[in-house]
Amino acid sequence: MAQRDTGTEQLIKDTAKRIFFSEGKLHATTQDIADAAGVNRTLLNYYFRSRDILFEQVAIEAREEMSAVLDHVFTAQLAFKEKLQQLINVFMDQAMKFPYREVYIVTELNRTDKAVPEEKKVRIKAFLKEISEEMDAGKIKKMDPRQFLMNLFSLMAYPLITNCLNKSIYNINDNEYLKLMKDRKKLIFEMIYQ
Amino acid sequence: MAQRDTGTEQLIKDTAKRIFFSEGKLHATTQDIADAAGVNRTLLNYYFRSRDILFEQVAIEAREEMSAVLDHVFTAQLAFKEKLQQLINVFMDQAMKFPYREVYIVTELNRTDKAVPEEKKVRIKAFLKEISEEMDAGKIKKMDPRQFLMNLFSLMAYPLITNCLNKSIYNINDNEYLKLMKDRKKLIFEMIYQ
DNA sequence: TTGTTGTTTGACAAAAATGTTAAACATAAT
DNA sequence: ATTATGTTTAACATTTTTGTCAAACAACAA
């Protein structure tokens, strides 16, 4: 396919991701993406054949990027406590850059009525087991381990999705918001781990 | 305007809300909404003039419905503990019905590049003050009260937004999911209030 | 240089979504 | 029954978005 790699294909995908995941413009058109990338719209068809294929490719890579982060932390040779700290650190850094990534994944699934892709559940199950053991050891409050994971991801992801609302509600500017989000890393850890 | 109220205007809005807030189909067209409501698409223009006006009206009412719930609980004549329990109970019931309501509000703001509407901050400020007092009284962990509120809403809202993903990741069906969400009410309260 | 191949562009075509209009319809009042 | 008024519909028009194609362009090889 791409014999002379001009970087255009990657540029288009990166731009699409910026618009969708960072700016949260889920209704962006192919023209919007082309303009933002500074390329002719026809190139989107040249590299991806159709809008739907491009959008799905972006969704697929979003899921892959997500799994990659989680797998990396889940399989790290670390004690649970350190794993947790690293997970919070890495995930929140990504969430601050791409706050709407999960929202994009979900809305694309809702839009296309496509079956939810079966996740590789081995890593998750192993981590759920670790969580259970930590509960037995009294390091974290006893509950359904799935609830524990939902709590964790909720605390990390949601405030960034509702960024614009929070800034209005709590009367804070960009800098202060950034500080609040950085503080959250420590706060979340202390909240779920004694 | 509506001398003979046939209920059509309300039907259109209710249908739009169902599609946007419940089904999470944020890319729905006017035709999609008309079909789902079982009415001629022209009626959307008859009652709302344009698509944009309808969509903004829906967003405005979404914010109003949200504030209404919060205001009601915030100003209730109850002790903080009971207020919190009621808030969790009422908010999660709504979130289970309309999981994507906040997402709709946010994406409409991002789509239209409209200024974030200034919220009535009096009630919020009063509640933030109550939270501070509760912290001083040792009933909740000390932190920035805004973080406390973010925690609370994150824990309530996020798992419902990611419903379809969670079902795949944790291998659960609709019924089990419903039970998990009901259990969360108690779980969230115990997590943030000693 | 010339030919080859992959890339980019503009003009055009097609499809999808939204908006407009006149006429049909229904209901209530005269 | 007839008129008046608000509601609904179908046909049409417009705008927006997406897709196609041939030609121009750029890099590389023979």
TrEMBL record, chains A, B:
Annotated region of DNA binding: 29-48
One Gene Ontology MF term: transcription cis-regulatory region binding
Top-level taxon: Bacteria
UniProt entry keywords in alphabetical sequence: DNA-binding, Transcription, Transcription regulation
Ranges where the HTH tetR-type domain occurs: 6-66
SUPFAM superfamilies (alphabetical): Homeodomain-like, Tetracyclin repressor-like, C-terminal domain
Family annotation (PANTHER family): HTH-TYPE TRANSCRIPTIONAL REGULATOR BETI, HTH-TYPE TRANSCRIPTIONAL REGULATOR RUTR
Protein name: TetR/AcrR family transcriptional regulator
